[in-house]
Amino acid sequence: MNNTNDFNLKKVLPAVLTIAIGMLLVMMDTTIMNVTLPHIQSAFHQNLSNSQWVITAYTLAMATVIPFAGFLGDRFSDKKVFALAIIFFTIASFLAANAHSMQSLIIWRIAQGLTGGVVAPIGIGMSFKIIPMEKRGSMMGLLGLPMLLAPTIGPALSGFLVKHFNWSTVFLINLPVGVLALIFVLLFLPNFPANKASKIDLKGALLSPFAFPILIYGVHVGTDKGWSNPTALSFVGLGIIMLLLFIIVELRVENPLLHLRAFVIPEFTKGISLMWLNQIVVFGAMLLVPLYLQNVVGLSSKNTGLIMVPQAIASFLGMTIGGRIFDKFGTKAAVLPGFTLGAISLSLFSQIKPSSSLAFTLCAIILLGLSQGLVNMQVNNHALQSVPMKNISRVTPLTNEMMQVVNSFAIAFLTAFLSGQIKKQTGLSPLQANLTAFHHTFWLLLLFVIVGFILTLFLRKKAKA
Q1: What pTM did the predictor assign?
Q2: Is residue 429 within 8 Å of 349, Cβ to Cβ?
């Protein structure tokens, strides 16, 4: 089906949209909890430290299961595992909505993470099997929709639901979406043959749960309690040691859980490096811009959310245009303008003031959105397209797992940098100290964009496996 001559939009489009709906179902539950958490805390009479496990447990469960996605898809067929993941994720959502204690809610959140964690890597892997190479830029842009919609719609939807109903509705909303996704899977996803001879990498399977989740948890503790905290240092140190052992094992086995040998492919390494750089900028912007608007400008969370909506719209526009440019002219033609727009946007943010006009702020936000759209899926496609198709099911879990780690480190690093900059601004008023610190942090993000621009110059026009 991945031959251009066999390309049939009427068959491929519903399949890609089905995968996107499944991914949106899972990604929404990552972003929807930030607004809901205080209401859950109040309902179960828990402190913030205990309540945060509702988010942490979900993240760690996903990090635990993602490395197994490739093996599960190969052994039992991608379509079957994708469908079962959606079924059990939906059931776990129903049980979470009916939880009667914080402990039971955390258990069902772990169940959500363990089932939902395989959806994105298997979904992206299926899309590469469905979409011919010459159409991947424009069609894969649809899979970027969940990444755009989840951060924008999630907080707004959860805010509406908890205001007019109660916290349990943020889980109940998953039920119709899950049922719809399952129907679409059965109707539109092609059958992929299962490889009954596929064997699991036992050493890797034993090590991965002690590598990625422990490392990510250590970063979370460090972000929350400071990097001198003994628990943070212990978990980060243990996580790094286990990760090194995992890498050594995976490079020596014939059928690894994660295809780490992909890093010997120059275009994959360059593409994945650009993904990491862009992800730092994306998560940094998602963290900094709303914080600036609320803490410095003094906007409400509702108005901040409304101002951020054009970013998602611009990202979708950039993704659509970028996909077509990618198909016709190659990666650099889309990514270089994308990083250029990102540099202009962050330059504007580094000069922004509470007195800046709404038009100035929206201009910076829209340019940032266009930049993300032009860069994000294009560098992802470039990296994955350089990998032989036979290895794609073991590479998509690798890229997803590394994104979990990079996102955790990005938030921790930028939060620490912003806090440090605020403390350094002695002799200034609190407002001016905050403003200067935000400007310096935006300059730091601009540095990542410049590095990304330079690295893009070394990409081949189109990556080939």
Answers
A1: 0.87
A2: no
